Amino acid sequence: MSRRVVLAHCWTGHPEFAWYPYLKGALEPHGFRVLIPALPHPDLPDPDEWREALTETIGTPGKNLTLIGHSLGCATILQYLQTTPQPVGNVILVACGTDSLGHAEIEPFYASSLDFMKIQQNAKSFTAFYSDDDPLLASDTFRHAALIFKRLWADIIVQPERGHFTGVEFPELVTTVLKLVYGGQKRARK
After folding, report:
1. Residue 51 phi, psi (nearest 5)
2. pLDDT band, residue 1 (cuts 50/70/90)
3. Angle at 13 between CA 8 and CA 19, to 5 degrees
């Protein structure tokens, strides 16, 4: 069975935003099928619509699936993991907030509490990337990181001066995916 990566983009994002094309281009030569769905109504997102679109893109989950969420996409992945019929492999959360940060438009994503025990059981591992200068998480970056660590036992990686991770390259993420899936061995297609 092929290795798959499904990425849930950020609020106002789309499949060609930021480092998403870079990730796809960097992982496909290593045998990954990378899917980045255009989640519906990215400017005025609805958590049920986003979760349904993610579920449809994933199809059958399993240990060969790595889920990556960016910002609001992280909330969608965590909601998906509460309901998945089968565990997934690895989950990587990038700039994962744990509340709406005062934005009414995304408050519904955080309206109901998450069952972190169920979420934990539905993935082999959790890794979370944060930046020390994220303008959206502001001075609360480490509060969010601490909660994700505490609730999911996630490996926390703090990157210096990466903002909200909107740059066009993200080599550390590629390296992390390869290490999680292949145990540190980079395998390129021949």
Report:
1. -65, -40
2. low
3. 75
